[in-house]
Amino acid sequence: MSSKLLQQPVKLALIQLATGPNKTTNLSHARLKVLEAARGGASIIVLPECFNSPYGTQHFPRYAEKLLPSPPTPEESPTFHALSQMAQESKTYLIGGSIPEYEPHESPPSDTATTTTIQSKDENKSKDENKGKDETKKNGKYYNTSLTFSPTGTLLATHRKIHLFDISIPGPKGITFRESDVLSPGSQPTLIPIPGYGLIGVAICYDIRFPELAMISARRGCFALIYPGAFNLTTGPLHWSLLARARAVDNQVYVALCSPARDMSEGAYHAWGHSLVTDPNANVLVEAGEEEEVVYADLSPAKIEEVRRGIPLGEQRRWDVYRDVSRDQD
User: Fold this and answer.
1) Dist. CA 277–CA 284, nearest whole Å
2) What is the mean pLDDT of the chain?
């Protein structure tokens, strides 16, 4: 498949950010790291999943922000306005990781109902936890949402995580987690035009496990698939790098995964870290460690063309044998 998917070389930065319980502090710290990445020459900058808050179903309701109608007020979504200002100040395209989003029902929930939900989730009693989850969903919907801004601070796109992280892995290093206890899923793939460069596909964390979503983005002309994500100490060593390389080799595009820094304090979600970028040939170009770090990768149009010319999958696909999932979206 011939390709000018990427119109010119571009430097991408992944910010493996350390976050804590204070949203204002997280946003201020993110701003400093975004400006650092811009000084490092990046034109496209990525923040991690849930960069403005701790990650966990017990945290989503308390940290969630109202994004619709857009633009929200600064009171409704301080993170929306902080990201817009970061993009404008850094003069970069900013993929704002993800944040918990709150979409109320027509009748907004009372403050008391919200507080009751949070308190019941903090108690380690099964009956109270289930009651809290029910009350949370009655109040409205919560999403895991990514916002992308232009260098002028304009919102370019919003992606709501499509596949929710519901797993139960047994064993001494196992983990059980159910995002669907609190979150609702998004329903649309997100392709974002980046003027002067081309299209990128943005999805969140668990979305990477579903090759169909990546295929839709790649078949529609994206030069990179970008996933803010927070794998953990069980799923990270199993599949983090493997999935990035698999999506890259399947689609012959760049793939970037941006994780939070690892926090091993008691009660925290232990993120894997290891933010990385793979090229269209599934080579890992750069990989962070566990701590806070900014990593950079230079994306090249020539590399995409070289890989697709050498192994011309696009010319060899058998649509008479299997269907093109990207056409199902038309």
Assistant:
1) 6
2) 90
